[in-house]
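This part of the workshop introduces the protein records we will be handling. Each record describes a single protein and holds just a pair of labelled lines. Instead of coordinates, the fold is spelled out as a row of discrete tokens. To make this concrete, we reproduce a full record directly below:
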Amino acid sequence: MSKKPTIKQKLSKPRSKRRFAVWVHKIQERLIKRINLVKCDKCGSPRLSHTPCRTCGYYRGRQIIKMKEPELKKTTKVKV
């Protein structure tokens, strides 16, 4: 059996939280750099690669998601 190292001195809560915050920040930076946006072939809006477009619902030239048509607001005429 291997011996585990013993703690020499207790770390305060702010010090341990600061160390964890730096670690989380580094991971978040790596994830942000990995996001790959490409231009949609159909509508030209930016979308994530290997996913259907959120605006038109097309992926690789085929419609994957049926999108609702934008509803036109009915304007009411005001009599003067």
In short: The first strand starts at residue 37 and ends at 39. Residues 52 and 59 are 5 Å apart (CA to CA). The longest helix spans residues 13-34.
